[in-house]
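okkk here we go again. third time trying to get the zinc ion bound version out, last two times i messed up the smiles copy paste (missing a bracket lol). double checked this time i swear
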Amino acid sequence: MDVQLSVAEENNLLADSPHPPPLEALPPAEPLPPAESSSMEPEADIHPVEPTPSSAEPSQPGAGKCPSLPPENACVWPGCTIRRVVNMRVHVMGKHAPSCLKPLGRSTRRQARRHLRILEQLAVACMGEGTTLQALMIRVNRERAQTRGTPHSSQGSMPKVYDAHFHMDRLRQGLGVSFMANLGDLERAEPPRGDVRPVSVAGGIAVYCDPQTYPTTREINFITRDLHLNVAVGVHPKQSLTSDQFDRLHSLSRMSEVKVLGEIGLDHSRPPSDWYRQEGLFRRVLNRCYSHHQHRVVCLHLRGMAGDPTAEECYSRALDILRLSRIPREQRLLLHNYTSTVSIADAYRRHFPATYFSFSLAASGFNSQQRQACRHIEAMDDRRLLIESDGPHFAPAGQRVGAPHLLWATAAVVGEVLGRDPRRVLDLTWKNGRDLF
Ligand SMILES: [Zn+2]
Ligand SMILES: [Zn+2]
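finally!!
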């Protein structure tokens, strides 16, 4: 099949990628790189099927040396013939092959044309001879609209969930999926098992706090516009920042799409010799990166010393720092993975009435003080209650990771503490999460 494409057609098709480069902006053709995989993309253990001899597609240099690439990368491997790439994609992904094609991102004109030729042949392979590119575009758009931001299991009467805190970058790495994977991809990589019932992820906050994996502008746009999630950018108190990394954090935190600053805070599970540094970093981020008009929420990570699960000294110190940094009283705070006491909850509510308390699967090990605090927060104002997976951490029993689509397990644990049905916990926290922004 040799379809001649007009520039308009090419642009239309490319426009279906989340953030395609306009063709006019593409640089002149240049030698292809060995592979266009990101360092954030671990290689999947998927072996391509044997190539089918093709008369229309002569072998390119390096053919036969194709490594085990994730199928979404295959289209950019220059050693593969297009026929081989198409066979492999159809073999691995079946009818989803066209819509799973990796977005182009930064690519040369030659790569863009190769991408289009793969799409043409996928159209024939998946939809039969005589299929037009336009028909393929309609189908791909429809499939993406169904899967973007909504996992496959989200149809029907499954409860909606709001995950107040999870790490998209760590989760993708932990599951070995593409760095542009959506929520449906995460669910396919780690489906709910055992007592964990399927839920529909309807919102949440994807947290980026590791300078090595700070998101690109493209990724932030993908998370916010395509997945309909909020993005938090901060620095975990266990991390240190070089001056370049701090500048990067500063510029990311000032992007209008970033409505959550965090996670930031104090982690006293580290030796006391590190506390002074952590405090300096916490103050610096609040002073330089925080914007009252932009940041609807400030997400705080607060952990106590070993053997001090309620960590009152750590929560109190952080409260002092917030006040000394002149954070406005009306600022929404999100105390992620809350583990402290009634008196700490009241102290935060007194100084920052819009404080939200988010509970994780750690609630399964709560002592009586912590259980009392959870019930107290609900009794005072249940609109301030949230739940989180903190994925990939806190894996429910039988699962490899914690993740937004596994949030039923957290709701069951928090529901047990509160004496509420998990569905009611999910419903309440979904509404509370929706009201955050
Ligand atoms: Zn944390
Ligand atoms: Zn976290």
